[in-house]
Amino acid sequence: MRVFSKLISYIFNPVFIPLAGTFLYFLLSPKYNSPEAKKLILLAIFIITVIIPFIFFLLLKNLGWVTNSKMTNPKERKIPLYICIILIYITLIKITPASYSTELYYYFVGILGALISCLIMVYFNFKASMHMMGISGLTTFVLGLSFHYEINITFGLALLILSIGSVATARLYLKSHNPSEVIAGVFIGTLPQFILFNYWL
Question: Nearest-CA neighbor of 140 among 193, 188, 103?
Fold first, then answer.
């Protein structure tokens, strides 16, 4: 069970969520996007939201500002969150502007809002589960896409909902979070995406 929980935690690491949401958007959207454009956007998002945060994490760890990837101390989350907020903002403005895709634009606005909410909670010494924030936000976005494009993806949504349960179980089993932190992560991930439905759905 421990190995399974660690595997789930790695697969659904929050740094992969922006990339996963973009990939699912291209997969589900009936709008035409050239294969070259898709590859360039996915590559850019991969570099900005996965590679760069990983490099910064290694740097912060070497400097002693972060002790481990779990960041059990809420104060250790401040700098990584500031970095992620800046990187998501850059992605929002330069890679997925509203002029290119309204859906992707507001997806990243929702991610930005969730990260800012996490940062605010850190100042109150509370560490919401970012794993839960990520998978819940992604599921809400995909649900919005299914309504927006009127497509039946019941099986895919069922898998995502199952993933939410799996991630919650894994985080609790590994004692990375307590139930209140897991629940807070769900709300922080879901609410911004749900509220932003008003602007693109």
Answer: 193
Tokens linked to 191: 């609410």
Let me know: does 176 contact 165? Beta carbons within 8 Å.
no
Asked if 144 and 201 touch (Cβ cutoff 8 Å), the reply is yes
Using alpha carbons, select from 11, 119, 16, 132 the residue that is nearest to residue 74: 119
Buried b (16+ CB within 10 A) or exposed e, 54-86: eebbeebeeeeebeeeebeebebbeebbebbbe
pTM surpassing 0.85? Answer: yes
Whether the CB-CB separation of 188 and 126 falls below 8 Å is answered with no
Token pair recorded at residue 156 = 């895919």
Q: How far apart are CA 173 and CA 150, in angstroms?
A: 37
Q: Which residues contact 19 (CB under 8 A, 6 or more apart)?
A: 42, 45, 46, 49, 50
What total of structural domains would you count in the chain?
1
Give the model confidence (pLDDT) of 11-62 as tens digits: 999 999 999 999 999 999 998 888 999 999 999 999 999 999 999 999 988 8
SS3 72: coil
Range of the domain at 155: 2-200
